[in-house]
Amino acid sequence: MDQCFLDLGPLYVVPCSKAHSGEVFDVETRPEPLAAPWPGTRALVAPTSDSRGAFEAYVGVDVRHSELKVYVYTPSETHWSEGRRRVVRFLRTPDLADHKGSLRDSHR
């Protein structure tokens, strides 16, 4: 993905070579139909085999052995009811500090 962002309240997409807060490694569009009820945040953030595989393919190490932190942006109940189904998983460093350079293939 190599999509990095700087979190200054609003999020700004920046090149990964610049200082950034987080790095997207997986974007999933949930398959539930438009009429499906909102499953709740817990269900949306739960790791799946696909998301664990995406992490390992991106970072180069199993998520259970990584020092990196995984965070998830999910649609709110209102956004879900409007048909938005995108779940975005991103990485942060253990100290949560801004950093430069991609975490792709970092084996961290």
Describe this structure in words.
The chain has 108 residues and is of the alpha+beta class. It has one domain (3-92). Helix content is 19%, strand content 27%. It has three helices and five strands. A five-stranded antiparallel sheet has the order 2-1-3-5-4. The longest helix has 11 residues, at 49-59.
Helix/strand class: alpha+beta
Strand order of the largest sheet: 2-1-3-5-4
How many domains is the backbone divided into?
A: 1
How many E-type strands?
Answer: 5
- Portion of residues in beta strands equals 25-35%
Q: Choose one word for the global shape.
A: globular
- Biggest β-sheet strands, sense, barrel: 5 strands, antiparallel
Distance between the termini: 17 Å
Q: Unreliable segments (pLDDT under 50, ≥5 consecutive)?
A: none
Q: What average pLDDT do the residues reach?
A: 92
Number of helices: 3
Rg, Å, rounded? 14 Å
Order of helices and strands: EEEHHEHE
Proportion in helices = 10-25%
Structure described in brief:
The protein has 108 residues and is an alpha+beta fold.
List the defining traits of the structure above:
108 residues, 27% strand, globular, five-stranded antiparallel sheet
SSE arrangement:
Blueprint: E1 3-7, E2 11-14, E3 22-29, H1 41-45, H2 49-59, E4 69-73, H3 77-81, E5 86-92
Antiparallel strand pairs: 1-2, 1-3, 3-5, 4-5
